[in-house]
Amino acid sequence: MSDVFVVQQCQSGIRLDTFVAQVADITRSHAGKLLKDGCVTVNGQVKDKSYCVKAEDSVTVDIPEDVSCDIPPQDIPIDIVYEDSDVLVINKQQGLTVHPANNVYTDTLVNALLFHVKDLSGINGVLRPGIVHRLDKDTSGLMMVAKNDFAHNSLAAQIQSKECRRIYIALTEGVIKEEGGTVDKAIARSTVDRKKMAVDPNGRSAVTLYKVIQRYKNNTLLRLELKTGRTHQIRVHCKYIGHPVVGDKTYGYKNQRFNLDGQLLHASEIMFTHPRTGEQMHFQVDLPDYFKRVLAVLEHEKIN
Q1: What does the alpha-carbon distance between residue 19 and residue 22 come to, in Å, rounded to a whole number?
Q2: SS3 for 263?
């Protein structure tokens, strides 16, 4: 259900999330979530929650209908790297969708968590219990899961403040000449294909740091760090600089050298402060076997 609200003179200058909360009669946190999910536009453009509305701005708010469904626990194997009474760290396998969506309520990480884990935070509702951040279906690697709302709020705040660090390894197409760099390009949903994201100056801020690990004849192995967490961010930014991720069926080359089930993108490290103890937590996992096999093939193509 979409509603359009025109900003009045007396409302000019207030933050967008505050304005949406007021006019839609919802909490500010709910408004923030709608903004994060791209359900709010200002004059047809996605804006950050801190944007200050102006008189005559046209604000469209699309509030998805509440979903009433039963998410069944499923005995899907998951690699639990760490677990205590507040936090779970898992090494997600490629091919596993994180949470139910589009009327598909089975065969996701959430179904697996409901089977293997007794308690999960409820902040994100019945479809995303415990989910603080996501990985794309065909991206593997480390994810934090919150077992209660206290932990969830802390971990989410650390992501927002950039205290939480997330490091990825990717094999990209082509040879990157510079040793590293920063891609600071806003991202929004593509106006051509709504299933894709794209670099868009009117989108939400997105910053990715990258550093070359190894060059090959036709590829580059990268270490990347997210400074923001936009949908498909690394994949979109790699495409933008002309070096899409190998195996990426959405943003990569049409003709792929290797027969892969998805992109060679792996969340290898995660660092955060434990919500309850204040301890600095650091986890690192190895590349999955299918990623290693490709690197083994490329071993003789290394460029020193």
Answers
A1: 5
A2: coil
Same domain, 205 and 294: yes
Domain boundary among 161, 192, 220: 161
Residue 71 lies in a domain: no
Nearest CA-CA partner of 92 in 158, 46, 34, 137: 137
Q: Which residues are annotated as catalytic?
A: 136
- 94 lies in the same domain as 107: yes
The answer on 297 and 176 residing in a single domain is: yes
What CATH number should be reported for the domain holding residue 145?
Answer: 3.30.2350.10
Yes or no: say if 209 and 135 are a contact pair by the CB < 8 Å rule: no
DSSP secondary structure letter of residue 49: T
Residues of the domain holding 198: 166-268+288-303
Mean pLDDT per segment of 10 residues, for the chain of length 304 residues?
A: 79 89 76 88 91 92 65 94 96 94 85 92 80 94 96 92 95 97 93 88 91 98 94 97 97 95 97 97 98 98 90
Judge whether 292 and 193 are in contact, CB under 8 Å: no
Distances (CA, A) of 250 to 82, 110, 152, 247: 32, 24, 31, 9
The number of domains in the chain is 3
Residue 208 lies in a domain: yes
DSSP summary character for residue 104: B
CA torsion, points 173, 175, 179, 182, in degrees to nearest 10? -40
Query: What is the distance, to the nearest Å, from the Cα of residue 163 to the centroid of all Cα atoms in its chain?
Result: 16
Write out 159-178 in H/E/C secondary structure.
Answer: HHCCCCEEEEEEEEECCCCC
What gap in Å lies between CA 209 and CA 274, rounded to an integer? 24
